Amino acid sequence: MNTPHQLASGEIVAPATVRIERRLPGPAERLWEYLTQSEKRRLWLASGDMEVFAGGKVELLFRHGELSSEPTPERFKHFETSPPMFGEVTECDPPRLLTYSWPGDNGASEVSFELFPEGKNVRLVLTHRRLESTEAMKMVAGGWEAHLGILEDRLSGLPPRGFWSAFAQLEEQYARKFAAR
């Protein structure tokens, strides 16, 4: 299993807004497929249908236990069989921009993925807006970083790193980083 040390690279860039940038193997069209196609998205985030146009429906079915070989910590066991969650695409410009209401909080927040080609790689800028508290920003940033680490592994042809160990490490880092907020 690939278990690189993860660093909390996300930043609070506006009130209730976290941004994370990650350089990933390209091209942008390939990364776009991992954002929008259920079978590829399930390898790093969650499966579910997505209508890839503004106003389209987003379904996310999280099965964190399938992301890596690590067992689910007790405090997250109740998520192992969570029902599908639904959001709506608010912006879509393939393969450059995808924004949708976040199904995990019934659409109270919104996530954007921006793709910028850089040679053979792509700079992914993930921005999650309208988060309700510093605690929510810490959890969301740690979760996104852990998921993006698995995406990076998948795109690089590596076995996925441990999701839960990465999340625990990142959650601690973000607790310290965002404490002053």
Notes on the structure:
With 181 residues, this protein is an alpha+beta fold. It has one domain: Alpha-D-Glucose-1,6-Bisphosphate, Chain A, domain 4 (2-Layer Sandwich). The protein contains 4 helices and 7 strands, in the order ββααβββββαα. It has a 7-stranded antiparallel beta sheet with strand order 1-2-7-6-5-4-3, covered by helices on one side. α3 packs across α4. The model has no long low-confidence stretch (mean pLDDT 93).
Can you lay out the helices and strands and say which pair or pack?
Elements: E1 11-14, E2 17-25, H1 28-36, H2 38-41, E3 57-60, E4 85-93, E5 97-101, E6 110-118, E7 121-129, H3 134-156, H4 163-178
Antiparallel strand pairs: 1-2, 2-7, 3-4, 4-5, 5-6, 6-7
On the 0-100 scale, what is the average pLDDT? 93
Strand arrangement, major sheet:
1-2-7-6-5-4-3
What's the number of extended β-strand segments?
7
The biggest beta sheet, please?
7 strands, antiparallel
- Total number of distinct structural domains: 1
H/E element order = EEHHEEEEEHH
Can you identify the CATH superfamily?
Answer: START domain
Which bin fits the share of residues in helices? 25-40%
Shape assignment: globular
CATH topology term: Alpha-D-Glucose-1,6-Bisphosphate, Chain A, domain 4
CATH architecture descriptor text: 2-Layer Sandwich
What's the CATH class label? Alpha Beta
Number of helices: 4
